[in-house]
Amino acid sequence: MTKSESRYFNTARRMDEAFLSILEKKDFEYITVKEICEKAEVNRSTFYLHYETVADLLSECVAEMNRQFEPYFQVSLSEFKQKIATASLEQLYLVTPEYLIPYLTYISEHRNVFKVVLANPDIMQTDQTYAHLFCEIFNPILDRYGIPEKERDYILSFYMEGMMGIIRRWLSLDCKDSVEEIARMIMHVVRR
Asked: Which among 22, 63, 119, 156 is placed 20 to 30 Å from 129, CA to CA?
């Protein structure tokens, strides 16, 4: 990486950090480019060199958060994908503390961004993330469980919407209940 590339990425990182800092105190729709630039100590023209809109900056922040998400789990996504074909069905059941606790911990630690993501699914392209997970993870697991292909999307939608309903409610209460309590509720509702 050249010095100018390093400077470019450092500036982008400063704007990400400034944006997330402001987001902790202010709703997304009220955040301005001016505030981000002042907090990051950059010019408006620098902002527009990197992004077209504040929503673009939010998308980049979420993409970065997704990259930071994997280390919360004991097994990497690529390792898990490799074991889908050979693991026991018991090992493929994901509604367990092993998977829920890291997921909910991550959501709790980044609650303000997740509130924005859930309030703006179109901006955040959550359908694309869901489609990727369905293709790479959930579809192969449901195949192993022998779920007919035409039923998979419906079944997964049912479970995902229910879990996300609990998470939305938890976020609306600013994650006041513990991660363990929410995991227990999800496991209670989502029975095998």
From this structure: 22
How far apart are the C-alpha atoms of 64 and 108, rounded to whole Å? Answer: 16
Question: Residue 166 burial by CB count (10 A; 0-12/13-18/19+): exposed, middle or buried?
Answer: middle
* Euclidean distance between CA atoms 13 and 21, whole angstroms: 12
CA-nearest of 109, 126, 128 to 117 is: 126
pTM above 0.85, yes or no: no
- Residue recorded with tokens 């991660």: 179
CB neighbours of residue 182 within 10 Å: 22
Residue pair 124/62 in contact (Cβ under 8 Å)? The answer is yes
Separation of alpha carbons 33 and 48, rounded Å: 9
- List pLDDT tens digits, range 73-107: 777 778 888 889 999 999 889 899 998 999 999 99
pLDDT tens digits for range 32-48? 999 999 999 999 999 99
Mean predicted lDDT score pLDDT of the chain:
87
Mapping DSSP to helix (H, G, I), strand (E, B) and coil, where does residue 43 land?
Answer: coil
